[in-house]
């Protein structure tokens, strides 16, 4: 059982927004609404207007209470993130102190870059939720996509900048953390990919996914900060392929629409508290396309789009220094 003190602002972000959207299912972000690029998008408020005299500046289709709720939720998550990390990563103690300087660090080899993929995926996922919240407030879809990406990127970059002002070692002067250009670039890539999927629907055939089960070290309290966001021992990151759309037509007709293929990546042994060496693991596994689940409507489209950020437990192959092995369930 995970200890109650293991908290993270991102988890609260997902839970609060999911609750917020559940109470307004008629307005949830849906990829099913996409209009072909060649069509001219006319705002609903401008349709069937015979003359400018019909326009009422005090009448709007925007759901301002919902919009305010999304804004307050976003602000609250930023507050919770700041509070959480101020008591963990950014906390000064007998060894570390603040010197007021902004420190930039290079962590290109840290965790063998699995954290960079996590930044790409995390920014894209936050953008997805924030964009859905805006569309629930009746903001037009294209605007939602852009502001969703800005919101996701902003939340991630807030943490990156604060990392740059984290405490430094009193003796060596080495920062406890620091602003990572690699992390920031990964955040930007995640937001860019989210926007690109709107303008280039073909990119929806390539889906960023993750799977996570808490490591034994975290569950037993052996991980010093009890933070699951960098509990790499329990994390796997994936890129899922919608094979039905990617295969040649003569092969695609035999491929089940619900079945996908995923490439996975995992790094074990990351952290000073591990005695075993760092190892890299690769995976080739089957996966599920949640969008094929026969549940319809905008709310269910939102749920299915969200589920497609998760790798489903399925059979597959693991490739490591020990060779190739088969497993009935890889998660």
Write a brief caption for the model.
This protein is 38% helix and 16% strand. It is of the alpha+beta class and 331 residues long.
Instruction: Give the radius of gyration.
Output: 22 Å
User: What class, by secondary structure content?
Assistant: alpha+beta
Low-confidence stretches: 1-59
| Series of H and E elements | HHEHHEHEHEHHEEHEE
Number of domains: 1
Overall, the morphology is globular
Determine the number of helices (DSSP H or I, runs of at least 4 residues): 9
Mean model confidence by pLDDT = 83
Content of β-strand? 15-25%
Question: Would you mind describing this structure in some detail?
Answer:
This protein has 331 residues and is of the alpha+beta class. Helix content is 38%, strand content 16%. It has one domain (9-34, 61-98, 110-330). The chain is built from 9 helices and 8 strands. A 6-stranded antiparallel sheet has the order 3-4-5-6-7-8. A two-stranded antiparallel sheet has the order 1-2. α2 runs antiparallel to α3 (114-136), α2 packs parallel to α4 (141-164) and α3 crosses α4 (141-164). The longest helix is centred in the middle third of the chain and has 24 residues, at 141-164. The protein starts with 8 loop residues before the first helix and ends with a strand.
């Amino acid at each position: 059982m995970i200890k109650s003190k293991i908290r993270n602002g991102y988890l609260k972000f997902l839970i609060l927004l999911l609750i917020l959207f559940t109470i307004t299912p008629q307005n949830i972000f849906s990829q099913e609404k996409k209009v072909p690029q060649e069509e001219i998008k006319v705002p609903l408020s401008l349709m069937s207007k015979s003359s400018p005299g019909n326009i009422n500046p005090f009448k709007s289709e925007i759901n301002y209470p919902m919009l305010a709720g999304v804004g307050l939720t976003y602000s609250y998550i930023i507050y919770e993130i700041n509070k959480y990390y101020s008591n963990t990563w950014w906390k000064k103690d007998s060894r570390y102190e603040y010197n007021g300087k902004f420190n930039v660090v290079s962590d290109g080899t840290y965790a063998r870059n699995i954290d960079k993929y996590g930044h790409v995926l995390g920014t894209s996922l936050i953008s997805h939720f924030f964009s859905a919240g805006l569309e629930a407030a009746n903001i037009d879809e294209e605007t939602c996509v852009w502001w969703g990406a800005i919101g996701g990127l902003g939340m991630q970059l807030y943490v990156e900048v604060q990392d740059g002002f984290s405490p430094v070692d009193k003796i060596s002067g080495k920062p406890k953390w620091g602003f990572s250009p690699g992390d920031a670039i990964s955040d930007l890539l995640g937001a860019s990919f989210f926007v690109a999927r709107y303008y280039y629907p073909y990119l929806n055939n390539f889906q960023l996914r993750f799977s996570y089960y808490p490591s034994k070290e975290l569950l037993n309290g052996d991980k010093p900060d009890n933070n699951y966001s960098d509990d790499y021992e329990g994390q796997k990151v994936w890129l899922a392929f919608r094979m039905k759309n990617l295969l040649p037509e003569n092969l695609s007709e035999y491929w089940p629409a619900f079945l996908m293929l995923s490439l996975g990546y995992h790094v074990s042994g990351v952290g000073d508290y591990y005695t075993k060496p760092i190892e890299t693991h690769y995976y080739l596994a089957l996966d599920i396309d949640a969008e094929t689940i026969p549940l319809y409507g905008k709310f269910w489209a939102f749920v299915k789009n969200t589920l497609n950020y998760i790798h489903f437990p399925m059979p597959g192959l693991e490739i490591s220094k020990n060779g190739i092995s088969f497993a009935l369930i890889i998660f």
